Amino acid sequence: MLGLALALGGAAASAVGATVGAAVPLGVAALAARTSEPTTAGRRTALGSIAAAVGLALAGGVLGSRRTVSAGDGTASVPADSEVGRLLATARDRSLDVDGIEPLVSERFYEVDINQVDPDPDRDEWTLSVTGAVENPGEYSYEDVTSMPAEHRFNTLRCVGESLNGMKMDNALWTGTPLTRILEDAGLQGDYVMLRAADGFYEEFSVAALRNGFLAWGMNGADLPRGHGAPVRALIPGHWGEINVKWLTEIEILDEEMEGYWEERGWHGTGPVNTVAKLHAVNRLGDGRIEVGGHAYAGTRGVDRVEVSVDGGDTWTDAELSEPLPGDDVWRQWVHRYDSPGAEHEVVVRATDGTGTLQPADERSAFPNGPSGWVSRTVRG
Ligand SMILES: Nc1nc2c(c(=O)[nH]1)N[C@H]1C(S)=C(S)[C@@H](COP(=O)(O)O)O[C@H]1N2
Ligand SMILES: [Mo]
What angle do CA 210, 198, 265 make, to 5 degrees? Predict the structure, then answer.
């Protein structure tokens, strides 16, 4: 599949080139290269910038086969009176009624992978080892992990390599166990951790973040799908997607810092996510009003407010927000309806996180710290 990989790298590089101008670091193309985003017509037309639209159009055509439908697959067989059934019903009830945006539990959850073909570890032979700077190295089978006390957590993921208004941000209800017990058993003697996976991926970050981590083996009431890291993946609340290591095989505690896979390629994607409000729906309501909507996410800081301007940023109005879902790391939806001014106008959207900090306005492309800026979009009256 070398030809495909090169073609995708080229498409991604030209999309990024259109955004940042001249030199495109190799890592930019690489992180964008092996990804799949939903490419339905409705979502594609909702993009906020020409550069992003070009990138998605180029990548989308080739990557169609990598599209996932994990949430839809998983939810059908969940009993309504189970805890998962009740939580999924809560997410459905709290989802705003807006055409063209994902419900609070994504129907198509994005995927980003370093390889063309996902690993497919045999669940019965799979083990998770805890190694390195620990008092007691350990090894856990699938049975060991899944017999620990289970919890269901809503958790949103976002890729550091996506465009500002991109589609690589999604939410699911994950089933798994907190890492606390495994870490207590190990007796940590270092401040950093390297998570390693069956596909050769590895990411390093702080033990402080790992302590809030979760080992997930279920997604939306079904077994964790292969594309999302079966049999077991890590979820690290509030941090960029890349340290949420899939097909996890090893937790290695380190006493000094090392670089992970993407950091060796120039990215800084192990830290907390940037705050973002995205704009994915523009609907004409038939009564002369226009409806705009999307999602906002700020990791564990939470989203307190989304404001919309329909005059290019001169005046701002509070958007309606979806009621929060339980959980510490979950996105919200927003919607705003207004009378069409009858002429072309610029819609701008910005979020305020749970600490009261406004999403920064300065525009930066994804490499190396994740995209920044306010999403704006020209709407015909
Ligand atoms: N083993 C492994 N884990 C991985 C990756 C990978 O390529 N291999 N990609 C990372 C990146 S860059 C992101 S954004 C998230 C995406 O998770 P998802 O594919 O389930 O959406 O997984 C992370 N975990
Ligand atoms: Mo990512």
Answer: 70
